[in-house]
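Quick start: read one record
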Amino acid sequence: MFSYILYLPKFALDRLPRSRSSNLYAAYTRFEKQHGARLILESTVLGKRRIQYEDEVAHDGRNYDAWFDYARLEEGALRTLREEGSTEDEENAAIERVRDIYERAVAHVPPGQEKRHWRRYIFLWLDYALFEEIETKASVYSLRC
């Protein structure tokens, strides 16, 4: 019976629009902090931060600082999965999430010739290349060939 009670808020959070689920998410997070397991709490906080970053980058796609933070969040989640002994499918899904974020980020090319925008954009590409080289052991040359 207790597991069914825990399932209801997750079910609602998955189906309600973000605009209507913020109070429920806050209450669910408080409940997990008090009564939940560490992994469930971390998963809840990770989901909440994903929503926050998705909103930020949807509002301004050229906010490269938000893209950096979002990519680091997902890279941290990937490292946590590896440390906890995840399955290969879980690890591959996490890698694809990180790649998707980087691909979406670099799709927002800076306007004009302002050096400060291009600098952040180039660092985004460098971080993406480092992720591929270090975390996935993929050659950077194979990314675009």
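Residues 38-59 form the longest helix (22 residues).
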